[in-house]
Amino acid sequence: MTQPKDRPAALESLSKFSFGATSAITTSLALIVGLDSASNPRMSIIGALLVLAVADNISDSLGIHVYRESQCKAASSDTGIHSISNFLTRLAVTLLFALIVLLLPLPYAIASSLILGLLLLSILSYLIALYQKTNPWISICHHIGVAIIVLIASHLLGKAIAGMFAA
Fold first, then answer.
1. Fewer CB within 10 Å, N or C, the chain?
2. Would you give the distance in Å from CA 36 to the centre of its chain?
3. pLDDT digit of tens for each residue in the chain (167 aa)?
4. If 0-12 CB within 10 Å is exposed, 13-18 middle and 19+ buried, where does residue 15 land?
5. H/E stretch holding 22
6. Is 126 exposed, middle or buried (0-12, 13-18, 19+ CB in 10 A)?
7. pTM value?
């Protein structure tokens, strides 16, 4: 992978956690808004986030590791660093959302998670735009727009499933 010569030092490691952070933010928020309609939403959300933090995180990190190995003739330490960075970033972000849901009343936890998640995604989008020397507002709007579509779809799906199984 070639890197631009004028790449700012602060953004040099951005690619090591950008995928993991984006994936963890979007998936965690989708679970939170999608499972809010469950019969015991707090338990459902925390349980789903913990499973996500472990099982999905490991499978995703392994997928990235195998993909990066397939792009090179031999495994490099860089491939391992990206896999570990992805795992640790996703674990930290997902556990942060689980902690918010555990500590706050559920309506506040959902609102706080949405605000924090979209803020983190905006910051990450801004940093990527700086690196790519593109308009940060376009990048932020694009990434937040996709995340909002995922959140709306998850919320509607959660409501539909809850309605199908309502007694």
1. C
2. 18
3. 444 555 555 555 666 667 677 888 888 888 888 887 777 788 888 888 888 888 888 888 787 777 777 776 555 666 677 778 888 888 999 999 999 999 999 999 999 999 999 999 999 999 989 988 999 999 999 999 999 999 999 989 888 888 887 76
4. middle
5. helix 14-34
6. middle
7. 0.78
